[in-house]
Design goal:
single chain, alpha+beta, Butyryl-Coa Dehydrogenase, subunit A, domain 1, Butyryl-CoA Dehydrogenase, subunit A, domain 3, 3 domains, seven-stranded mixed beta sheet, about 50% helix, membrane, glutaryl-CoA dehydrogenase (ETF), transit peptide
Amino acid sequence: MTASLSGLSSPVITSRTGTSRLRPRDILFFAYFAIHIIAGIFLDWHPLVDPAIIPAPLLKISSILTDQLKDPMMVLRTHPTHSSFLWMHSFIAGELILQLPLCIYAVIAISKNCQSRFLPLLCYGVHTATTMQPTMAHLLFREPQLHVCQRSVLLGIYVPFLIVPVFLAYDSFRVLKKQLGAFGLVEAKNSNQYYIHHVTSTGQPARCFSSSTINNGSSKLQKYNWEDPLNLESQLTDEERIVRDSSTSYAQEQLLPRIIDAYRTEKFDKSIMKEMGEMGFLGSTIDGYGCAGVSSVAYGLIAREIEKVDSGYRSAMSVQSSLVMHPINEFGSPEQKEKFLPSLAKGDIIGAFGLTEPNHGSDPASMETTARKDPASPGNFVLSGSKTWITNSPIADIFIVWAKSVDEEGAPIRGFILEKSSMKGLEAPAIEGKFGLRASITGMILMDEVKVPAENMLPNVKGLKGPFSCLNNARYGIAWGVLGAAESCFLQARQYTLERKQFGSPLAGYQLIQSKLAKAHSDIAIGLQACLQVGRLKDKGELAPEMVSMIKRNSCEKALEIARDCRDMLGGNGISDEYHIIRHMNNLEVTKTYEGTHDMHSLILGRAVTGLPAFSH
């Protein structure tokens, strides 16, 4: 995916202190400065002008316009009533009026340490100093006929021209002193400058960081954006924004109109998988095989937008992407990838993932499903056992099933690709009567001596590493997704309480309501930041599995609390599916349980913190 960068509204200069946007007065200053320099260069070539004694463009122009100023010093020596004298001083006054605002601007810019404007000011100061030096010398040493008072007045007029060079010299000295202080040569005495010294084994500072740009609260505060409180938008790439926007459009325009009926009737429309395939949502982080190849953050944003409509739709997508396509891409043979991934990416075939069993949920190592070698067909396998609470299973074309390979030493867990169309003894009945995730279809996988060719075993993984890798991928998407459901509840409750009046005032004006809204608002924003950070680490290959447990546990817990509070804020209307919140609440009860229960993730984090496993106690 590609994106075009939008144009900036005004010029920008980037410096060590960050990005500094130029204001109109800065642009006017630079424009005048450019005209000043260019005019001075061209006028210096004019035969009637002596540049050594006429430094400013306005005076140079006056020298050309009137023959009376061919010898400016002669004019200065004339009687004050002489027309040439009056002309000369009029132009000097005009030049002074034009220069003073620039001098004041320069002093302010330098005093505020505006480093982005330092170079233009430096050029301006050097130019002024070099052009003024001959004039000042001429007035002081080469015109003995001038009266002392007259000489003093002229020097006073030209003093403002020297303000910028003097301040630049002072500032340069201050910067030099600061840098010497950073290296320990000069002690920095400015309380606003901070230095961090990293001392090597030799006792010398290896690296010094000057934080003179630390903001002490002087910058203008921004208006709070409650719709994006921690500015998530600015942390996304252009591609991620495009993915997010397309996901939002699809979810709100195509999925939302269907959800109430789907939830009421407990029906899943298989065409949704093809629609998601066309959008590039299925297996979106995989490179090649018809997949989009986007970042993990982009995948999280997709999950978030889909689950704003319903957790069931996100769950169907998540199973296809993280639990079916991921293990084939990660652990499958080249032939398996070519055979299955393109069709799965398009949604032409649907997959399911079989790990949980009727007697073994949080303890998959104790699974009873077995895979033994087929005595009638050496190299092939026979699978027997059952899996339960399997999303997509009644409509699935293929199944990723994990079973103990009993003929191998230690009976390691192996992964197999089962194909419904060609394998006898394979059934996938639906589980009816759910109160959550009713918009996605759930069932079992029953295997009665199912013969599986050797080429359908995932060759590049052995043990629980395989299924846990898949679950970590799915848990990551869940952490993003449930916050989307929480956002939907929050927005519904906010709008409802603003419009609903009790005792003559909107509900949103009461403290109890605002407390609940503030908590939901904060939990969602902070949770999204955690998901974003984990996504960035995932893309950089710096992810620890415990990080995923943390955000899955946190997001699911907070999202369910938010849904419950929002349902409560709607009173009796909170249980109507017209407002969606009760549906989200029921779904979030499920997400807190599946892909690792809330308590199991607590134990995973507890083991990481203490180093002591507590699973078997």
